Here is the input.
Amino acid sequence: MTASAPASPRPPAGRPVIEISGLRKSFGPAAVLKGIDLTVNAGDVVCVIGPSGSGKSTLLRCVNLLERPTAGSIKLLGVEVTDPDVDIDRVRTHVGMVFQSFNLFPHKTVMGNLTMAQRQVLGRSEAQARAVALRNLEQVGLADRLDAYPAQLSGGQQQRVAIARALSMDPAMMLFDEPTSALDPELVGDVLAVMRDLAESGMTMMVVTHEMAFAREVGDRVVFMDDGQVMEEGPAAQVIGSPRTERARVFLHRVLNPTAVDESELGQTEPPQPGDPDYRPPPAGHGRAGRPGDGRSDGEGHVPLTVR
Here is the structure.
């Protein structure tokens, strides 16, 4: 029997765990990452935010070499994973990753999902793997569902199982790729609570997210990306509360105030008045609520009011 692999080391706080330098990634002629420099230290929670298509998920996938960079270097725990000779499978045993779509094995129970990699990759016995799995299921509040299949769980429960599965490999760091984006709003809180507890335990975390409250309250640092570049980086309260760049200000205003309407984008903000080139008088006899002759109309031929 293969000897049980030791747990991934937890580096001392402040030591670089993820070091990214000059990272570029292109898909054919399309440049998705355009020279990223970023360092994540042990114990840090770094939240990556930005509009869709800005390269956030590609950045995260490059860290774990699920996407191979076009140029640049990435070091995990001091090991350059972009070195062609690296044993990437060994490095990945120190990295837990949680995806948007759970990626659980549908034909295996919750316990089966949590024990398979432990036994095949880490060489743990069935008893060892089950003990570790049960401990992590208790941590995410699902110890009573160990015999359930993924199809019998809600989306939020499946995502918590996915987190427990990643934790069962005793990773030194965790990568989260928009872990709540596929969930119903009422299920988001349970997953974020687990992630909050994980951050408080000292786990190093790199989180791609649209959950601004989580990023502000739990993140040590926030990285704002746009067009494949890091546009702004700093303490969470500063980047989200007082962003320095105009692009970050516009993005955060729209995310934090989703019902707000920018009048500059609407053009005319008042209905045209008599004498204006665009003024069209209402048809005679079609007043408000069907009352003829009051000069106003809510029916056909009305003059629309533009939302402020």
